[in-house]
Specification:
heterodimer, A: alpha/beta, 49% helix, B: mainly alpha, 16 helices, 2 strands, 71% helix, globular
C-alpha cells in the first residue's frame, strides 16, 4: 500500500489556470486559508488564442499584473475578414475601468497569475485531482501528487476550476460532451503584424463550411498566434483539428497576407468550455467556475474574461457566505452564456458558404447588430439599479426601489425565450434610457407601501414595461430581406415583440379581466400610433400634431395602462389619463432628444439611427418649422451626402432642441401637477415619477458631449 | 363538405369598426382579414358550442370572430418571419406594405381579439393569453430548429402542439364555455381540439411538401427550402442517410423537386399520413356524448375534412 499524504485547507481550489488563480488570489487577499492544486508545473503551455478582452485585462490589473500587461501589444481593433476579401473592422476603445484588450501568451500570463495568488498567501501544490468524496466526514479531494503518491486533501469547500475537461465534473455525475474544439500554433511572420485581432470566416475544409472561425492574434511584431476553433458534428464526421489548422495556414500563406509564415513550436489543441447551460455547484461543497462551469462564450469562443470574472465572483460569494450564506451566482452574472446558439451558428455558416451576398454591416440588421454588441461585451448590468426610474423610487422609499428591482427580475424571467439574447436586447434598451419607468408607474399607481407588493403587482409592472418596449423592437425590422441573416434579423425582431406582447397579455390577465381589457386597448392604440409614425417616415412635411398624436398613442397609452393596472390592484379609480399621456409624451420626448443629440459614448452605435430610418422626432420637426432649408439637408442625409452630426447641428442651431426641451419640461410639470392632487402615497410616488424624464435629460446632459448642459432648470 | 362556414366575411370586417376612421392602419388590417380562408377554427368554436345549453349565445360568435382575427394576425406575422411573398394566392401583407406594417396590423388584430375574449371573463382572457404565448413560443422553437438535420420527431411534435394545436384546443374549449357547456364537456372538447390541431398541421406540412401553389396559395416546398424539417423529412432522414449530406449542403430551389422525390421514396408520405390519421382518431374518440342537433356530427365532419386533404395528396 503506497503512502498517503494528507493536507488540509479551508478552501481548496482545483486548477491553477486563470479561473483558479484568480479565485485563490481574491480569497487569500481576504485572509482565507487557500490551497491551490494543479497537475502541471508552471510555466506551462496552454492551447488558447492568447487574446484577453477588456474584462480579463481589468481583472489582471486588479491582481497587480500591470507591468506584464503594459509590455504586450495593445489591441486597437477587431477585424472580421470574410473569404479573404472583405473586412469589417470594429475599433476597440478604452475608457476608465475598460482597458484595451491585450495579447499575452498563456504560458507567461498563467504563470504570472499563479505568482499573484501565491504572493497573496495561497499555497500551491502540484497534484492531479481524481476524485471527490463528500459522503464521509467533511469533504475530501482524492489526488495523486508529483511523485505518484496518493494525496488526500480535506477542505471546508472546493472551487472546481479544472477546465473544459473537468474531472470533478465527470466524477460528480454531471458530464456533458464537449461541443467545440480549438487548436493553435505559433508562427513567425515575415510582415510586421497589425495590433488587431483578426478573425477569418468562413472556415472551410473539403468544400464544407465548418461552424467556427480562424484567427491570427499578434503576440508581438512578428510572432502570431494562429488558430482555428469550431463546433463538432454531433455524429463525429469532422476532419481532425490539426488538418483544419494546416488548411487554414496554407490559405493564409497563399494569400500572403502576413508574408511568409514559419512555424514555431507544435500545435496545441483542446476542447472549449462551452456548455448548453452554465452550471454552478451541482454537488454539495463543490463550486464550479470557469470552463469547468461552461462559461466560454458560445458564439465567440472567448473564455478568459468569463473565467477570471467568474473566479472573482465565486471567491466573493464564498467570502460572503460566511456572513450570510449566499451562493455563487454565475448564471445571473453571465446571462449571455449557456444559451443555445445552434440556429445562429447554422444560419451564419450557411450564409458564409454561399459567399455572403448580403451587406455585412450591423446597421442593416438592427436586431442582430444589438446581439453582436452584447456578445462583444463580456460584462453588463442586468438590474434596474441606478437607472433614473429606480433612483427616484429609491429617494421616495428604498423598499419601493427593491420592488422595482423585483419587477425587473420578473421581467427578465418572463422574457426568457427559446431564442438567445432576446431578453438581454430588451433589457439593454430599457437600461440605456430611463430604466423601467413604466413598471415604476404601475407600482406607484397601486399606492401600496414598498415591500408589501402582492404578486399581481409584479404582473402589472411587467405588463406595462413589455407594452412600452414593443415599438422599439418592431423598428428593428428591415424590408427586402433577401439574405438568410436578414430574415433571421426580422424573425428575431417580430418574434421578440410577439413574445413580449403575449407575456404582457398573460400578466395583465392575471390582474383580472379588467386588466386584460385595458391591455387590449393599449396595444391597439400602440399599433395605431406605430403606424402613424411609420407612415410619416421620410416626410419632412409631417406636422408636429401628428407626432403628438403618435406619442399619445404609443408612450401615452403605455403609461395610462400602467396607471390603470396599478389602480385595479388598489381597488381604486385610476388617475385622470392626462397624467399618463403627459408623462408618456415626456418620456418619449426625452428619449428622442437624447438619441438625437448625444454622441456614441452614451449610446454606442445608436446616434442618428432614427434619422437613418427616416423617423423625424419632435426636435427635428420643430427645427423644420423654423428652418426652411432643413428638409433639403435631411434629403441629403438620406442620400448619405451629409452626416447625422451635420443634421443635428442644424437642428440645434434652429432652436429645435431647445424648443423640444421646453416642451418636455412642460409635460413633466403638467403630469406632476395632476399627481400632486392625488391623495396619499400614490400621489407622492406618481409626482416623483413624473420628474424622471427631467432627471434623465439632466444626467445625460452632464456627459462629455454636454449637449444639454444647463438646458433645464433644477426641478 | 359536411360542415358549414361559421362566419360570414362581414362579421370579421365589423370587428375592425372600433378603429378610428382616420387611422393609417385600417386599410392594412382590412387587407389581412379579407384574405380568403376556410375559417376552420371558427367552425370548431361554433360547433363546440352545441354541447352547451345556449349554443346561440352571441358570445359564441364573438369568440369565433376573435379566434379568426388572431389566426389572421399569426399568418401576417408568419409571413414576416418566413419572408413569404405569397399567401392564399395574393401578395403577403409584408411583401405588399412592408414588414413593419405587417407587424403592426397583426398586432392590432391580436389585441382586438384579446379585447373580444376579455369580455367573456377572466378565465377566458387568461386561457387566450396562454394560447397566444404558446403560439409564439412554438414559432420561436421552430426558428431555433432551422436547418437542424438532427431534429427529432418529438421536437417536431412539440412545436406543432405549441404553434397550431394550442389554438385549435382553445377554439373548441372557448366555444364550449361560451355556449354554456359544463367543465367535463369543455375539457373533452379541448382534447378534441388539440388532436384535431395536430392532424391539421401535419396535413399542412404534407401539403407544403407535395402540393402546388394552386392548392396552397404559397410557393411549394417552402418549408424544406427554409430549413424547417417536418415529419416527412425527419422520417426520410432516418431511412436515407445520404439525404443528410444533401441537406447540409443547402440545396438550391431547382434541386427541390428531386429532393421531394427522394423523400417520397423512403415511404415518408405514407408514414406521415398514418400519423395524421392517428390524431384524427384521437380527436373523434375525445368527443363527448350528447350535444344539441348535429354538434358531434359537425365536429366529426371537420375531422373528416382534414383527413380528406391528406387522402387526395397521397394518390398523386
Amino acid at each position: 500500500m503506497s503512502a498517503e499524504v494528507r493536507d488540509e485547507a479551508e478552501i481548496a481550489v482545483v486548477g491553477a489556470g486563470p479561473t483558479g488563480s484568480t479565485a485563490a488570489a481574491v480569497l487569500a487577499e481576504q485572509g482565507h486559508d487557500v490551497l491551490l492544486l494543479d497537475k502541471d508545473e508552471f510555466p506551462r503551455e496552454k492551447p488558447c488564442g492568447d487574446g484577453l478582452m477588456h474584462p480579463a485585462v481589468a481583472a489582471a490589473e486588479r491582481l497587480g499584473l500591470t507591468e506584464l500587461i503594459g509590455s504586450r501589444p495593445k489591441i486597437e481593433a477587431a477585424r472580421i475578414v470574410v473569404a479573404h476579401r472583405r473586412h469589417e473592422t470594429t475599433r476597440l476603445t478604452s475608457s476608465p475601468g475598460r482597458p484595451h484588450p491585450r495579447c499575452i501568451g498563456r504560458a507567461d500570463f498563467d504563470a504570472a497569475l499563479l505568482g499573484s495568488a501565491r504572493a497573496a498567501g495561497a499555497r500551491f501544490r502540484r497534484a492531479r485531482v481524481e476524485g471527490y468524496d463528500h459522503n464521509g466526514v467533511g469533504r475530501r479531494l482524492l489526488a495523486v501528487d508529483e511523485r505518484g503518491e496518493h494525496l488526500v486533501v480535506r477542505a471546508g469547500t472546493v472551487v472546481a476550476a479544472d477546465g473544459a475537461t473537468s474531472r470533478l465534473r465527470r466524477v460528480t455525475g454531471a458530464p456533458s460532451a464537449p461541443q467545440a474544439y480549438a487548436v493553435r500554433q505559433y508562427f513567425v511572420s515575415q510582415q510586421p503584424l497589425d495590433q488587431v485581432f483578426d478573425f477569418f470566416v468562413p472556415l472551410e475544409m473539403d468544400g464544407r463550411v465548418l461552424s467556427g472561425y480562424g484567427w491570427v492574434f499578434p503576440l508581438d511584431q512578428h510572432l502570431a498566434n494562429v488558430g482555428v476553433g469550431f463546433y463538432r458534428d454531433p455524429r463525429g464526421e469532422d476532419p481532425p483539428l490539426t488538418t483544419v489548422l494546416e488548411a487554414f495556414v496554407a490559405e493564409l500563406r497563399l494569400k500572403a497576407r502576413y508574408g511568409d509564415l514559419e512555424a514555431e513550436g507544435r500545435p496545441y489543441g483542446s476542447p472549449l468550455g462551452i456548455r448548453s447551460a452554465v452550471e454552478v455547484a451541482a454537488v454539495d461543497g463543490l463550486n464550479f467556475a470557469g470552463d469547468a462551469a461552461g462559461t466560454t462564450h458560445a458564439l465567440t469562443g472567448e473564455g478568459i474574461a468569463f473565467a477570471m470574472r467568474g473566479g472573482e465572483a465565486v471567491a466573493h460569494a464564498l467570502h460572503a457566505r460566511g456572513r450570510n450564506g449566499r451562493r455563487a451566482t454565475l448564471p445571473a452574472l453571465f446571462p449571455q452564456l449557456g444559451v443555445d446558439t445552434g440556429m445562429l451558428n447554422r444560419t451564419w455558416t450557411r450564409e458564409m458558404s454561399k459567399g455572403s451576398s448580403g451587406p455585412t454591416g450591423s446597421a442593416s440588421k438592427p436586431f442582430l447588430g444589438r446581439i453582436k454588441q452584447l456578445v462583444g461585451e463580456s460584462a453588463y448590468e442586468t438590474g434596474a439599479e441606478a437607472t433614473p426610474a429606480w433612483n427616484r423610487l429609491h429617494d421616495q422609499d428604498p423598499a419601493l426601489a427593491a420592488d422595482l428591482e423585483a419587477a425587473n427580475t420578473r421581467l427578465m424571467e418572463e422574457l426568457s425565450t427559446p431564442l438567445p439574447f432576446v431578453k438581454e436586447v430588451v433589457h439593454r434598451s430599457i437600461r440605456s434610457h430611463l430604466g423601467p419607468i413604466y413598471a415604476a408607474i404601475a407600482l406607484g399607481s397601486t399606492g401600496i407601501e414598498g415591500g408589501r407588493l402582492p404578486a399581481a403587482g409584479l404582473d402589472a409592472a411587467v405588463a406595462s414595461e413589455c407594452v412600452a418596449v414593443l415599438p422599439e423592437l418592431l423598428t428593428m425590422l428591415v424590408d427586402r430581406a433577401g439574405s438568410k441573416t436578414l430574415r433571421v434579423n426580422n424573425a428575431f425582431a417580430i418574434l421578440s415583440a410577439d413574445f413580449a406582447a403575449t407575456r404582457a397579455m398573460k400578466a395583465a390577465a392575471r390582474v383580472g379581466s379588467e386588466g386584460a381589457l385595458a391591455i387590449s386597448l393599449a396595444c391597439q392604440r400602440g399599433c395605431e400610433g406605430g403606424m402613424r409614425d411609420s407612415s410619416t417616415r421620410f416626410a419632412p412635411n409631417r406636422v408636429a400634431e401628428s407626432w403628438f398624436q403618435a406619442a399619445r398613442e404609443t408612450a401615452g397609452s403605455a403609461a395610462v395602462l400602467a396607471t390603470r393596472l396599478g389602480a385595479i390592484l388598489a381597488g381604486e379609480d385610476p388617475p385622470s389619463s392626462g397624467y399618463g399621456i403627459d408623462l408618456g409624451i415626456a418620456i418619449r420626448l426625452a428619449e428622442e432628444i437624447v438619441d438625437l443629440t448625444v454622441g456614441p459614448e452614451a449610446h454606442p452605435g445608436r446616434e442618428g439611427a432614427d434619422l437613418r430610418r427616416g423617423i423625424y422626432s419632435l426636435p427635428v420637426l420643430y427645427a423644420i418649422e423654423a428652418d426652411s432649408q432643413l428638409p433639403q439637408l435631411l434629403a441629403r442625409h438620406t442620400a448619405e451626402e451629409v452626416t447625422a452630426a451635420d443634421v443635428v447641428k442644424a437642428v440645434r442651431e434652429s432652436g429645435g432642441v431647445e424648443r423640444a426641451l421646453a416642451e418636455a419640461e412642460t409635460r413633466v410639470e403638467a403630469a406632476a401637477a395632476i399627481a400632486e392632487r392625488l391623495p396619499g402615497r400614490r400621489g407622492e410616488v406618481l409626482t416623483a415619477l413624473a420628474r424622471v424624464p427631467a432627471d434623465y435629460l439632466r444626467t445625460v446632459g452632464r456627459g462629455p458631449a454636454g449637449a444639454l448642459a444647463g438646458a433645464l432648470e433644477s426641478v | 363538405m359536411g360542415w358549414e362556414r361559421a362566419l360570414t366575411e362581414g362579421e370579421l370586417e365589423a370587428a375592425l369598426a372600433s378603429m378610428p376612421e382616420d387611422s393609417p392602419l385600417r386599410e392594412s388590417c382590412a387587407y389581412v382579414v379579407s384574405a380568403p380562408g376556410q375559417r376552420f377554427r371558427a367552425s370548431v368554436t361554433v360547433a363546440a358550442a352545441g354541447f352547451g345549453d345556449r349554443p346561440e349565445d352571441p358570445r359564441v360568435t364573438q369568440a369565433a370572430v376573435a379566434i379568426e382575427l388572431f389566426h389572421a394576425a399569426t399568418l401576417a406575422h408568419d409571413d414576416v418571419v418566413d419572408d413569404g411573398k405569397l399567401r392564399r394566392g395574393r401578395a403577403a401583407i409584408g411583401a405588399r406594405s412592408g414588414n413593419l406594417t405587417a407587424s403592426l396590423a397583426g398586432g392590432w388584430l391580436c389585441a382586438r381579439a384579446s379585447e373580444l375574449i376579455a369580455e367573456l371573463g377572466a378565465r377566458a382572457a387568461l386561457a387566450f393569453a396562454e394560447t397566444t404565448a404558446a403560439v409564439c413560443e412554438g414559432e420561436m422553437l421552430e426558428l431555433g430548429d432551422l436547418h437542424d438535420v438532427d431534429r427529432s420527431r418529438e421536437r417536431c411534435l412539440l412545436v406543432t402542439e405549441a404553434k397550431t394545436a394550442s389554438l385549435f384546443a382553445f377554439s373548441a374549449w372557448v366555444g364550449a364555455v361560451a355556449g354554456g357547456a359544463g367543465e367535463a364537456e369543455a375539457e373533452a372538447l379541448e382534447e378534441y381540439g388539440t388532436a384535431l390541431g395536430m392532424a391539421f398541421q401535419i396535413s399542412d406540412d404534407l401539403l407544403d411538401l407535395l402540393a402546388g401553389p394552386e392548392e396552397t396559395g404559397k410557393t411549394p416546398g417552402s418549408d424544406l427550402r427554409q430549413g424547417v424539417y417536418t415529419l416527412p423529412v425527419i422520417h426520410a432522414l432516418e431511412v436515407d442517410p445520404g439525404l443528410r449530406e444533401q441537406l447540409l449542403r443547402d440545396p438550391e430551389p431547382y434541386e427541390l423537386p428531386a429532393l421531394v422525390e427522394r423523400v417520397r421514396a423512403t415511404g415518408a408520405i405514407e408514414s406521415t399520413r398514418e400519423e395524421c390519421a392517428g390524431w384524427l382518431e384521437r380527436a373523434r374518440a375525445a368527443l363527448p356524448a350528447g350535444g344539441s342537433a348535429g354538434a358531434g356530427e359537425r365536429l366529426t365532419a371537420l375531422a373528416g375534412a382534414v383527413g380528406d386533404r391528406v387522402a387526395e395528396m397521397a394518390a398523386a
